[in-house]
Design brief:
The protein has 166 residues and is α/β, with parallel strands linked by helices. It is built from five helices and six strands. α1 crosses α5.
């Protein structure tokens, strides 16, 4: 499908999940950052919540979005500390991975944080009818991923995932 022929007036449905053991709705900064980007792009937020950094809780939160959302964005838990488990929760459930997302994200992050970009385990892929993105918890990282990578390609990704075999 030619990306220029996609109907960009269609509003996609986004589910936003902050992964944190310590953040609350009052202290979460990455969730509102994701929401602002989605709203600025004219899409719908169908769910927004905070989930503890526990693999089973993270997976259940994602599973619940199938049939509800088009795109799930998770923020937090992508580092290398012992409590960072978002990568471990999401990577094994992906039907197809999109390694280019993590590669591009780290490349773009280089301009913001230099060699520390290698610490990010940003990830993307598909699970059933969902496009899933796993982002670091930093608001700057969220803004970079949402505005430079995710939102410009969201329509194309959803269209490709929903393409029927002929």
């Amino acid at each position: 499908m030619n990306p220029s022929k996609l109907d960009h007036s269609i509003k996609l449905k986004f589910s936003l999940i902050t992964i944190s053991d310590t953040r609350t709705t009052k202290t979460d900064r990455s969730g509102p950052c994701m929401a602002q980007s989605v709203e600025n792009a004219g899409h719908h937020i169908v769910s927004q919540r905070i989930v503890h950094d526990e693999p089973d809780m993270i997976q259940k939160a994602v599973y619940a979005q199938s049939g509800i959302a088009d795109v799930v964005c998770l923020s937090g838990g992508t580092g290398i500390s012992p409590r960072d488990q978002t990568f471990e929760a999401i990577a094994p459930i992906l039907d197809k991975s999109l390694p280019g997302f993590g590669e591009l994200f780290r490349m773009l992050s280089w301009d913001q944080v230099g060699s520390r970009a290698m610490l990010s385990r940003a990830l993307a892929g598909t699970y059933k009818d969902l496009i899933i993105f796993v982002l670091p918890g930093s608001p700057k990282a969220v803004e970079l991923a949402m505005d430079e990578l995710i939102l410009p390609e969201a329509h194309h990704l959803v269209a490709e995932l929903n393409k029927q075999n002929l």
